């Protein structure tokens, strides 16, 4: 399908690449507005009627990520595709989290990939708008799967294209993974996350993540990837990408899966199995509702455990055993629901007693290389 009359805002500080893409998109009958910086991009966006934004993330001054945040404030539903090099994967993940619908990795071997991404971004935006107007006319879940399928496949292809690089280059894998980890303390309006993860190699087989879901919910999880090699870095990117997709759907009013640990872990297992990566994941997943402090916990695999922490110490939360994500024998996750009482916090940790002792001593240091400490670690979710 030609991009007839599609207005594209192309933002890239590389004049050669920008003109090359512009000439190609014009040949596909698109109207292209060029910007050489984030500031120019915002100015053009405010003056022109734009259908889709294609932006490089690595620009001096107002970078692509900061620009995208401003554009989404102006028009939350604008389809945006970000373009990145391998070294800024953290910005890619953040762009997806704040609302970008897809991303591409430089060098782009075929410009038709950009055209395909634009077509799918616009189609998805139109479908989302239509479904918000008539959401009661068809089952939401079937609509979700059928319409998000092409977008998910495109994003996954981009990830898969870079798996070989991460597997072969420990330096590339380390660089990508380190950008995904937050500081040791993540402060939210009504809660905070603290963690420590210890690694003995360049790549950590363990990963933590958290995000607000709307104004009332906070989700966090800790994952352990098998095998413990460079592919764990790709596993971190893949897992966070799947979470980001559900976060965007939640924001569009199309899915509540992200705040339902049973359904979220079932979804993640399906995606891991279909990926064909032969990767398995132990994971503990927590969602807390921050007005009544109701907690839903999901767990897959046996390598991690959830604990309730209070003035008495750590009390393990009893959850039945289940297979790790990615296992062909996987059936369903273990789940539990409870209320968090004043003075209590929720923790996820390995079974290592040294890790648990460090948790009780509040030794939160983020991700660190430490040869004399077993790989793994712990995280704590504390309501304010």
* Order of SSEs: EHEHEHEHEHHHHEEEEHHEEEEEEHEE
Number of strands: 17
* Fraction of residues in β-strands: 25-35%
CATH architecture of the largest domain: 4-Layer Sandwich
Give the helix proportion (percent range): 25-40%
Explain this structure to me?
Helices cover 38% and strands 27% of the residues. With 384 residues, it is of the alpha/beta class. It folds into 2 domains: 7-127 and 154-164, Response regulator (Rossmann fold), CATH 3.40.50; 182-383, PPM-type phosphatase domain (Phosphatase 2c, domain 1, 4-Layer Sandwich). Strands 6, 7, 12, 13, 15, 16 and 17 form a 7-stranded mixed sheet that branches. Strands 2-1-3-4-5 form a 5-stranded parallel sheet, with helices on both faces. α1 (15-27) links the parallel β1 (7-11) and β2 (31-35). The longest helix has 22 residues, at 112-133. It is elongated. Residues 132-158 have low confidence and may be disordered.
Give short descriptive properties of this protein.
Rossmann fold, seven-stranded mixed sheet, five-stranded parallel sheet, 2 domains, elongated, 384 residues, Phosphatase 2c, domain 1, alpha/beta, 38% helix
In short:
The chain is α/β, with parallel strands linked by helices and 384 residues long.
Per-chain topology:
Layout: E1 7-11, H1 15-27, E2 31-35, H2 38-47, E3 52-56, H3 64-74, E4 80-84, H4 89-98, E5 102-105, H5 112-133, H6 140-161, H7 163-168, H8 170-178, E6 185-187, E7 191-199, E8 206-213, E9 217-226, H9 231-251, H10 261-275, E10 280-289, E11 294-300, E12 305-310, E13 313-316, E14 334-339, E15 345-349, H11 353-360, E16 366-369, E17 376-383
Parallel strand pairs: 1-2, 1-3, 3-4, 4-5, 7-16
Antiparallel strand pairs: 6-7, 7-17, 8-9, 9-10, 10-11, 11-14, 12-13, 12-15, 15-17
Helix pairs in contact: 2-3, 3-4, 4-9, 5-6, 8-9
